Amino acid sequence: MEDDSLNSLLISVLAIPFVIAIQLWVKERKDRRRNKDGEQEFKTTREALISFLIEGIAVVGGLAILIAATSGIAKYIINVYG
User: Fold this and answer.
1) Does this model's pTM top 0.90?
2) N or C: which end of the chain has fewer CB within 10 A?
3) 41 CB contacts (<8 Å, ≥6 apart)?
4) 10 lies in which domain range?
């Protein structure tokens, strides 16, 4: 039982840097497209839609992983100390 909780904690803790990397990647992509006024520029509507879709999936996926990691850490704390 202890090994399962420990494995869950390890995976949860290792998932957090992955989420941070995803968020930084999305921010970097958005910053590359900014013009001097701070607005995002796209060459075509297709490029804009694809970027919104990819970045949206990355943000939602990152948040889902973060929620799962947080619940894994909480489950470990409850199982070990509760």
Assistant:
1) no
2) N
3) 33, 34, 35
4) 2-81
DSSP string, 53-70: HHHHHHHHHHHHHHHHHH
Helix or strand (DSSP H, E) at 17: helix 2-32
Q: Answer whether 7's CB lies under 8 Å from 73's CB.
A: no
Q: Which two tokens stand for residue 12?
A: 């949860």
N-terminal to C-terminal alpha carbon distance within the chain: 14
CB 66 within 8 A of CB 23: no
Rounded CA-CA distance 56/59 in Å is 5
Contact (Cβ atoms closer than 8 angstroms) between residue 23 and residue 62: yes
Specify the number of domains making up the chain.
1
